[in-house]
From TrEMBL:
PROSITE patterns in the record: RESPONSE_REGULATORY (PS50110)
InterPro entries associated with the record: CheY-like_superfamily, LytR-like, LytTR_DNA-bd_dom, Sig_transdc_resp-reg_receiver
Function: Required for high-level post-exponential phase expression of a series of secreted proteins.
Domain of life per record: Bacteria
4-aspartylphosphate found at: D56
Pfam families: LytTR, Response_reg
Keywords: Activator, Cytoplasm, Phosphoprotein, Two-component regulatory system
Record-annotated Response regulatory domain positions: 5-115
UniProt organism field: Olivibacter jilunii
Protein name according to UniProt: LytR/AlgR family response regulator transcription factor
SMART domains hit by this protein: LytTR (SM00850), REC (SM00448)
SUPFAM superfamilies assigned to the protein according to its UniProt record, in alphabetical order: CheY-like
Keyword Thylakoid attributed: no
Length: 234
């Protein structure tokens, strides 16, 4: 069985045939089924063995984002001709967002991200570190961002989604980058690592995180810009 078992959905048949032809060029991807109707896909989805779904966003009857909310545990790749859906797509924890026309190399990046996403459950979900509260288990899924401590630059402040924080003692960003899941965190400047799932918007020089009703704005440094943009296929 191939590593990635994929369902395709696009209401435009020429686009769907084109997408399927590209997918068939990947040795590790099996196209389980292709649909041009979201409601028909919903009727059959529980009977299909798949772990990745490539969804068009703009469709009649039900858009791709509504449908994605019903596909728990699947790697979701959105495709669209419109850039304005990007922020909403990542809020749904999509692994990638591709602007049409779809290119082979661009889809390969999306499938690579899908593979990493599907491997997460097999990877450690936390790491044990020293903190100002003693030994702690730092759970990756709870982190919003990590910044340098104002008191001692050798220490790092971790801010959680619920507003709580903890100070990690005597650890460098280089060490943290090696410990954190590479597809879930990215460094954006010399003093900040962020969780990619919390990214709400970004420009060439700035990144905005959104958690509930709270937003956080950070600078995007030139040295880290390329890696950051690559995370979002920009």
């Amino acid at each position: 069985m191939k590593e990635l078992r994929c369902i395709l959905l696009d209401d435009e048949l020429p686009a769907l045939r084109y997408l399927r032809s590209i997918c068939e060029g990947f040795s590790n991807v099996e196209v389980v089924k292709a649909f041009n109707n979201p409601l028909r896909m919903l009727e059959e989805v529980d009977q299909l063995d798949f772990n990745v779904c490539v969804l068009d966003i703009e469709m009649p009857q039900m858009n791709g984002m509504e449908l994605a909310g019903k596909l728990e545990g699947k790697a979701i790749i959105f495709t669209t001709a419109y850039k304005e859906f990007a922020a909403e797509a990542y809020e749904l924890d999509a692994v990638d967002y591709i602007i049409k026309p779809i290119q082979f190399d661009r889809l390969k990046k999306a499938f690579d991200k899908s593979y990493n996403f599907l491997q997460r459950e097999e990877l450690p979900q936390y790491v044990q570190l020293n903190s100002n509260k003693g030994k702690i288990l730092l759970h990756f899924a709870m982190i919003t961002f990590i910044v340098v401590s104002e008191v001692d630059k050798r220490d790092k402040r971790v801010i959680y989604d619920d507003g709580r924080e903890v100070t990690l003692k005597n650890i460098s960003f280089e060490q943290l980058v090696k410990l954190l899941p590479r597809d879930a965190f990215v460094r954006i400047n010399r003093q900040t690592i962020i969780a990619t799932r919390c990214v709400h918007a970004f420009t060439h020089n700035q990144v905005t995180l959104l958690v509930g009703s709270k937003s956080f704005v950070f600078s995007l440094n030139e040295h880290y810009r390329k890696d950051f943009l690559a995370m979002f296929g920009a």
